[in-house]
Request: fold
Amino acid sequence: MPVNHPGSRAGNGVALRSVQKAVKHGGSGSIFATLNLTPMIDFFTVLVIFLIQNYSASGELMLINEKVAMPKARHAVELARAPIVQITGSSGPNEEGFVLFENQPVIGIRDVTEAKFKDWNITPLKSVLEKAWKKQQAEGGPEKNSAKIIIQSDRRVPFSVIKMVMATCGRNNYTEPNFAIIEGVDDNAQGI
Amino acid sequence: MGGAATGGGGVADANLNLVPFIDLLSCLICFLLISAVWTQMARIDVDQALPRASSNPKEKPQQDDKINVLIAKDAYLVNISKQEPKRIPKLGSFTLDRSGANEEFTKYDRATLRKTIEEYVEKIGKGATTKVVVAARDDTSYIHLIGALDVVLGVCPGAGGKECLKNPSVGDPDILRAEGFTSLE
Reply:
């Protein structure tokens, strides 16, 4: 059996038939296929436009506390910067919910009762609100006399706590409460 | 163009280098995806109608043409001042997930509440300026308060359905006792 010159081979790792053919048989066509970039650029452009349209900076105004499961609502307005009172829920019988002001714990919600604060003025919250109001006055600017305050509460928190927090805010210059919600519909919405 | 017009030997079609453009788009997409806020937060503006919410309580003028909504334990109670409240019973219950565990809530009839408010708004005839007071019992969960407020804010009687009710008041049942809510259940 004569020994033949092996010639050029594409090898098993090359899957493209056209490449194998070109290498084995010395085809005249180019082994480089051109990639059409137009659809890719179109896709990228549409994606960029979509992302820019949906870009929202309001999420940075407020952080969602992991212990606050906010309720959903459809008919709301855009969030604006204001002091935030958070009310966390208790995820278990041994865990207590807290009232926080700007992420700093103020009082446990078990202590927020009419029996303890007969005039609905929660003393620890009152003192932090007074400080915040003084700071707001000292800083000046367009928000100097803004009476807005955001109440960000867990969906399970009872109204007895909400109303006392609202009353305390109202008694300490923050007379315009805003309830923070997540835009959307919950299972009780019934398409409303 | 210049090449073609002067008959020069250069190529008429200039090649646009797409690589920097693709790089820019890729970076922009990465930035937008990383910095995007997927949870859209918003706010509901309300007025306070709590008897002890002000250190200087002012005498508020009596408003006989407002709609009162009470979130009772198993129903909505709705009336116009001092009339017999209409009772809208609950529909059952629904569950929401929290970290793998289910939380059960009362399912109120929001569709009927909306229809009732729309009827009352039409009856009062003040359109989008109609005042609505939403009150809740002490044990009412916050989700139900927001649910009722959402229904109120979704009623749009003014300007051919373009102007909606604004700033509902939030209060406790005490303020409704004089409004015909003798029974709060």
Q: What stands out?
A: Chain B touches chain A through 58 residues (CB under 8 Å). The longest strand of chain B covers residues 92-98. The longest helix of chain B spans residues 19-35. The beta strands of chain B are 41-45, 47-49, 67-71, 75-80, 86-89, 92-98, 101-107, 132-136, 169-171.
